[in-house]
Design goal:
mainly alpha
C-alpha cells in the first residue's frame, strides 16, 4: 500500500502537468486564430495537431453564435475543472494510502 500511495502522488503530478500543458496549447491555438500565421510553420502545425483533437468534438456539437468559435473557452474550462477535481482527488487518495 505504501508504494501505491507514492505512485498515485506521482501520477497526480503528471496529470496536473499534462492538463496545464493542454490548456497552454489551446490558448496558443486561440491566439493563432486571431492572426494569420504561416500554415507551413512547424510550430503552428504542431499546435494545430495537438489542439484539434480537443477542439473538434466541441465544435461539432456546438453551434457558433454569430460565427464566434467558443470551443477553446469550453475546452479550457473543462481542462481547468478536470485539473481542480482530478489532481486533488488523486493526492488525497495517495495521502490516505501512505499514512
Amino acid at each position: 500500500m505504501f508504494l501505491l500511495g507514492y505512485f498515485l502522488q506521482a501520477l497526480a503530478g503528471v496529470v496536473h502537468v499534462l492538463l496545464v500543458s493542454a490548456e497552454i496549447v489551446v490558448v496558443a491555438r486561440a491566439v493563432l486564430s486571431w492572426v494569420s500565421p504561416d500554415p507551413y510553420n512547424p510550430i503552428v502545425r504542431v499546435i494545430v495537431q495537438l489542439s484539434e483533437p480537443m477542439l473538434y468534438p466541441v465544435r461539432r456539437r456546438m453551434p457558433m453564435p454569430g460565427g464566434l468559435d467558443l470551443s477553446p473557452m469550453i475546452v479550457i474550462l473543462a481542462l481547468m475543472f478536470l485539473d481542480s477535481f482530478l489532481t486533488p482527488s488523486l493526492q488525497r487518495l495517495a495521502l490516505s494510502l501512505v499514512s
